[in-house]
Amino acid sequence: MKKLSEQLSDLSDRTKRTEDVVDAAKAKNRERLQAQKAQLQTAVGAERARIDEGTTKAQADAQSKWHDLRTAMDSHVAELRAKGEQHKAERDLKRAEQRADDAELDAADAIDFAIYALDYAEYAIVDATIARADADDLAPKS
User: Is the dihedral of CA 78, 80, 81, 82 positive or negative?
Assistant: First the structure.
């Protein structure tokens, strides 16, 4: 893009050419008008080409920026999904670890209960054996 001072200089030059065209039209100078017309056609063609080039470049830039934006958004969404999946996996891992910890505690409680039950069974056997011995001692011996 041209600097503002360059654009103003171009505008001044074009204004001068327009004044020359108006002067030639007032003087009805056909040769001068034909020459101005040829210059204007050349200038209009060049300006149209410059604008078309700028438009094409602007369109290409816009498409490129749009593509970059879509790529960036796709990347961002993929990153968010990956983080979500990782978080879910971490939650799943934490849940699995918690379930494993709970199961291990249940197993430890069951083992403690089994040891208690064995101790009680052993006590009951000893108590029953002593009770039987006491009963046998009290029984008349025949």
Answer: positive
d(CA 60, CA 68): 12
Q: Residue 139: helix, strand or coil by DSSP? A: coil
Q: Which residues of 9-35 are buried (b: 16+ CB within 10 A; e: fewer)?
A: eeeeeeeeeeeebeebeeeeeeeeeee
Residues in the chain: 142
What does the pLDDT look like over 16-67, one tens digit per residue?
877 777 777 777 777 777 777 788 788 878 878 877 777 777 788 788 888 8
Q: Which residue has the tokens 């054996």?
A: 129
Query: DSSP 3-state assignment of 140?
Result: coil
Here the tokens at position 33 are 């008008």
**Hey, what are 55's tokens?**
């438009």
Q: What is the CA radius of gyration of the chain?
A: 50
What whole-number distance in Å separates Cα of residue 40 and Cα of residue 25? 14
